[in-house]
Design a protein that fits this description.
Length: 52
């Protein structure tokens, strides 16, 4: 997601983005449940969260 605010973005400040690319899994309450997962680690976390 991007709001085109760059490093001044409210989302970047809220989620402490310090580098790009950064990825976050965020639950329905807005809580970060994982950061910067890729490949098999991302697949495993998504399966855990989605119950599949």
């Amino acid at each position: 997601m991007s709001d085109l605010g760059g490093w001044n973005s409210a989302a970047a400040a809220q989620y402490s983005v310090r580098s790009i690319p950064s990825s976050f899994l965020i639950d329905k309450d807005g809580k970060i449940i994982a950061k910067n997962l890729r490949g098999e680690a991302l697949d495993a976390k998504l399966a855990e969260v989605l119950g599949s």
